[in-house]
Amino acid sequence: MRARAIIHLDNFLQNVAFVKKLTGKPICVPVKTDAYGHGAVEIAKAALNAGVSCLGVAAAAEGTELRKNGISCPILLFSQPNPNEIPEIFDSNLTPFISDFGFVDALNKYAAAKNTKISVHIKIDTGMGRLGCSPEEALPLAKHIRNCPALNLAGVATHFAASDSFKKDDKTFTQLQISRFKDAVQAIRDAGIDPGIVHAANSGAVLLHPDSWFDMVRPGILLYGYAIAEEDKPEYYSQIKPVMELRAAVSLIKPIKKGVSVSYDRIWTAPNDTDIAVLSIGYGDGLPRLASNRWAAMINGKAYSLAGRICMDQCCVDIEQDKTVSQWDEAVIFGGLAQDAATLAQVIGTIPYEITCNINKRVERIYIGN
Ligand SMILES: *Cc1c(COP(=O)(O)O)cnc(C)c1O
Questions:
Q1: Is the Cβ atom of 221 under 6 angstroms away from ligand 1?
Q2: Fold held by 9-239
Q3: Domain limits of the chain?
Q4: pLDDT in tens, 296-331
Q5: Nearest C-alpha to atom 8 of ligand 1 is from which residue?
Q6: How high is the mean pLDDT of the chain?
Q7: Which of 204, 206, 313, 317 could be stapled to 282 by a disulfide with Cβ–Cβ 3.0 to 4.6 Å?
Q8: In what order do the strands lie in the sheet with 54-57?
Q9: Which listed residue (233, 236, 264, 361) is catalytic?
Q10: Half-sphere exposure of 93 toward its Cβ, with a 13 Å CA cutoff?
Q11: What is the pLDDT of residue 233?
Q12: What CATH class has 244-368?
């Protein structure tokens, strides 16, 4: 196998248990982008076996894939769907987030014509500045939904812009979002409308803002094993375990002479006579090209530096004439015994979400530990 992602379901379940114990709330597991690259169907099944109450997707097609694989729990559709996805939303029994009156009308019209019903959640923009209605519009929208016989208001949600930040003004901003959200939910209740499940907390808010937990929490990255980047690692850190481990094979070993360059653009030349191991993984698999010359792979428990540009399908490491490395040994790129995807993300200036989401589908996922 040239490149594979070992998905440690035991670690995922441990992370779920951590969030359950910490919050004591029902959990909605975001499985959008193929569960952040981990495989939506397998992650969903593991999550549901662990007592998770619902799942979240960003595209109707992602919800349909789960339904085709026998998943029957509520599936929230976080993103604003295109009107042409409405039939699929009904067929797959998805629960869309509502930001505007037009979408309510479109859903109601379709439901009335098909003589069917649908549950929806109102999404309120309390400061993210993206999807959602304004806090003032939430009550009118709730009233409008109440007046649509085919629609059932099953929840009210918001999303935080900076809940994972330790900066004082970001914390204050999150508190402002929470208070705007509470006020909007209260206005709905005061009008005699049941808001359904009230939910807001993403990973950052689960860890840093207990007053945002409400009736359900929606942590994604935390369940996939990456806590908040902090200098001062708190004790919960040791309880959060990265779920993905990326591996490749040593496909060729060869000696090269001092001064010889390796790979595209000749950005690395051998400082001494050495041996190069070619690994069967590249940016086409999702190993970021920006990590060229800036990362190391673990082979048999020892770290070896990447040498030269990461190519589409290959990269190279300098194994320094270490004769313990053999052709077809396995190299760990991140996770497992190597540094994790969050550290790789930090090295190249991005976030772990982007690293795991970008692991290409040609990298086989192997599920272990459940
Ligand atoms: C992706 C997403 C989450 C999870 O965010 P994390 O930062 O991964 O915890 C929660 N809610 C919504 C609406 C999302 O789109």
A1: yes
A2: TIM Barrel (3.20.20)
A3: 9-239, 244-368
A4: 999 999 999 999 999 999 999 999 999 999 999 999
A5: 220
A6: 96
A7: 313
A8: 28-30, 54-57, 75-77, 95-98, 118-124, 151-158, 197-201, 216-217
A9: 264
A10: 11
A11: 66
A12: mainly beta
